[in-house]
Every structure is written in C-alpha cells, then in structure tokens.
Amino acid sequence: MKCPGLYAEGMKRTVFLVSDRTGITVEALSRSLLSQFDHIPFDQVTLPFIDTLDKARQAAQRIRQTARDGVRPLVFSSLTDPEARAALADSGAFFLDLFDTFIEALERELGARASGEAGKSHGMGANYGSRMEALNFALAHDDGVGSRLDRADVILVGVSRSGKTPACLYLALHYGLRAANYPLTEEDLARPGLPPLVAPYRERLFGLTLSPERLALIRQERRPGSRYAELATCQGEVRQAESLFRAHRIPFLDTGAMSVEEIASSIAHPAR
Amino acid sequence: MKCPGLYAEGMKRTVFLVSDRTGITVEALSRSLLSQFDHIPFDQVTLPFIDTLDKARQAAQRIRQTARDGVRPLVFSSLTDPEARAALADSGAFFLDLFDTFIEALERELGARASGEAGKSHGMGANYGSRMEALNFALAHDDGVGSRLDRADVILVGVSRSGKTPACLYLALHYGLRAANYPLTEEDLARPGLPPLVAPYRERLFGLTLSPERLALIRQERRPGSRYAELATCQGEVRQAESLFRAHRIPFLDTGAMSVEEIASSIAHPAR
C-alpha cells in the first residue's frame, strides 16, 4: 500500500532534463534555477538526443512511470519539435518548456520565425574549429612549455599550484581562447623584472594568486612534508608573485574561493 | 543624421547576457534560443559578476546607450536580486528575465521559497573537488600513459586522432568523470584480443571512430604526406578498430560530425 505523505518525505524529487541535442543548456538552466531551492533533494536524469517522436514518447513513458511511483517529477525541456514537445508535456509531470516560454516573444521582437531545427548550440558550430585549435594550443603551452607564446590570446602566470592549467583548459574549450600558462619559479621570483620568456607579452599576462595558507594545503596534498609545501615557502612566493603583478601592472585574481568557470569567465570578460 | 531604416539593416542586434555570477547559464540559454534565428546577425556582450545594485545600474546605463545608438538590444538576465533586476529591466531593451519567468512557478510547485542568493551553479559546489580530481586524472591518463586505469570511470579507445583527448577533458571538467584514453596502435590492431593494458576493464571501454576519409584529412594536417596520413592506412586502421569494438561488444560512436560536447554527453548519458 502506498502511503503518499511518508513516501514523499523520504523521496528525492526527480528532475528530467530533456533535449534533442546534448542537454547541456537545459542542465545549466535547471541547475541555476534549482540551486535556489538547495534544501530540497533532487535526483537529476538527463535524456539527451531525444530527436524523434518515438524517443519523445519513450521519454514521456518513463517520466509517467516516475510520476506514478512517487512525487510528481519536474521536466525541463528544450525540445524544438512541436509534436515531440506535446508528447512530453502529456506525461503527468510539472513541465517547464524552454522553447515554448521564450520563442514566441523572441519571434515577435525579431520579426522572424524560429527555424524549428533541433538545437545546434553545442554542436559543431561556426567557431568549433577554433575552439579545438585553442584546446590543442593550451595543451601544447602548459606549464611553461611550447614555443608559440606569440600566438597566445592570454598567458596565465602564477606560482606552482595556483590553478593555471584547469583555467587554461576551460578558457580554450569553452571560450575558444588560446590560453598558455607559465609557472613562476623561485628563480623567476628572485630575479628583477618579468621572466624573459613572457616579458615580451606583458599586455597578455594575467596573474593567478591565492592565500599562502590555501596554497600550502594544496601543495601538502601533492608533496607532503616538503619544503615546497611549507607555509613559509608559500608565504614568500605569494608575496613576491603579487609584488611582480603590481610592479608590472598585470591584472590578477585571488582564485582561492573561485571555481574554474568563475576564473575563466573573469578572464574572458574583463571588467571595463 | 540618423537614418533608422538603413541603420537597422546594416547593424547587428546587440544581445546582453547579464548574470550575477559567470554568465555561463544565460549564455547557453541565449545561444540555444538565438540559434533558432540563424539568419539574424547578433553581437553578444556578456556582463558577468553583476552582483551589486551599482553594477546593475552601470550595466543598465550601458544597455540604454546601445538602445539609443541603434536597434533595441536584447537582454537575457539571470540576476536574482529584485532591485538589480528592476534596474536592468528599466533599460529600454527587450528583456528576458530567466529568474522571473520560471521561479514563481517553481516556488508554487515545490511549495518552497527561492533563496534569492546569487547563482551558485557554476561556483565551487559540492562536486567541485571531484571535478578537479577528475581533470587531474584525465591529464595524467592521456594517450595510454598513467598507472591507475583501475580508477577510471571510462576509458576511451580509438585510433590516433579520433578525438579522444578533447572528449576526456570535457568528460572530466563538465561531468566530473575520471576519463582515461588509450590509442589503438597498429600493433594493437594486428594482435588478437584487446590491448593487454585495457583488457581488464572491458566494461569501462568506449570506442571512438570516424570515417577513414575524415581521419586521413585530420592526419594530413598533422603529418602531411606521411604513410600515417594515407587513406589506405586510415581505412585499414578504422576497419580493424571497429571489428575490435564489435568483437568485444564495446559501445562506440562515429565522432566525425560530432562536437566534443555531443561526444561527451553521449558517453555520460548512455541510452538505456
């Protein structure tokens, strides 16, 4: 026997993210909206590539089953095909239709009809080649190696373990920027002026820094008990690196409490 | 003198993407919706980290200026603060408010109030550590190197230049999967059975393939005129690789016309 109240209490609310392509947009939207309700536990199920009416019906069937088994599920859909959307809407779920919600208003504003083709925003679009080229560049110009810094859009500089590599990969993959990175060694920091390898590109440099305490923690994980990971070492390096940034007017970020997305967005969209 | 008709015709429509955090969600939403109007030229401006009323007013000022200079701009906003949203809405633009549109309906459905805190979906959330760990794993287990394949969530296999590295990086960065990759060499393909290094993990293998013609094109860019890039070589390798996948019931994808996001989404959400 089902006991609805009890049932609902112990259960996560299922959220279906339905897309005719990757589902990345609708996942981002749902994550953004549901993060506003962070005390409610959600169980996310992404159903990507729902690009035929048949698949839409199967998805609806699966959602209907979940609705029958417990609390009413949520559905975020970015399907573009009207029939597929109708099939999905008829699944007993709480249905948020991205396409339906915004597209009519946009059609009116733009004085044009939506093409109705399946989402292409995460496909091989016009800038795909340059994003992949940027990624290859980032991989080939990681940690001070690589010979074409002159082709970099941005060169991240910072002490070892300040988060340069993930930021470069994200800048390349997501923003299509040719991002190189150069680690500031103790030798670099002891020397006056910028490291010779990056000095010619001062206006493309971007510094990453973080608190010595946090840096020591990260380095301890990597080389426990080493001088490299000692707080005093980290304090010295961070102080010198930040002095270098200030002396050469290199913009820099404290990345200690920032995600790679936040770091990359800050670099890709500098404040004016 | 302004000549409105002429002005509008030659001009791109400016789209402002305004967020109190990275802007990644609102960029994805706008890209997805505007890809439905692909004959209209848009000029995108992302304004991330609009996290004070002051910054919102400055953003509104900038948008108002654009509205004055040409065609009415579009604004996609995911701001959560009511005052900041009001400031932005009052900018003379065509205003799509992500928060306003969906949050009330969600509040009713969930029987809970939105927290109203700035978006956290691309911040250092609960799974951030594991995403970064996955990225380090992917970097350390690229192209057949790395010693901890037993810890991999997925191991991509395929001939040289079938797109394994970008897919692994995306799987790690975006989906938090520990993704390794192993290149099928001519030696591997000539030998019966799976390569010894990956054979113990058959159920975690995922194959990438593409047409020999496309592979030859990609390899030509890398090593023009080489035997490695010859069509006959590519035909042989692709045929053998696909036979291997079939013989060992390894799921595989033809990545020739797929973006890295599409490949990663297919692998992260296998069809049931």
How is the topology of this model organized?
The structure is a homodimer of 272-residue chains.
Chain A (H helix, E strand, L loop, with lengths): L3 H7 L2 E6 L5 H11 L7 E6 L5 H17 L4 E4 L4 H8 L4 E4 H13 L17 H13 L13 E6 L4 H12 L3 E6 L1 H5 L14 E5 L2 H11 L8 H17 L4 E3 L5 H9 L4
Parallel strand pairs in A: 1-2, 1-3, 3-4, 5-6, 5-7, 7-8
Helix pairs in contact in A: 3-4, 6-7, 7-11, 9-10
State the gist of this model.
The first copy, chain A, has 272 residues and is α/β, with parallel strands linked by helices.
Provide an overview of this structure.
The structure is a homodimer of 272-residue chains. With 272 residues, chain A is an alpha/beta fold. Chain A contains 11 helices and 8 strands. The first copy, chain A, has helices at 4-10, 24-34, 53-69, 82-89, 98-110, 128-140, 164-175, 186-190, 212-222, 231-247, 260-268; strands at residues 13-18, 42-47, 74-77, 94-97, 154-159, 179-184, 205-209, 252-254. In chain A, the strands form 2 sheets. In chain A, strands 2-1-3-4 form a 4-stranded parallel beta sheet, with helices on both faces. In chain A, helix 3 (53-69) runs parallel beside helix 4, helix 6 (128-140) runs antiparallel to helix 7 and helix 7 (164-175) packs across helix 11 (260-268). Chain A starts with a helix and ends with a helix. Mean pLDDT of chain A is 91; it is low at 1-8.
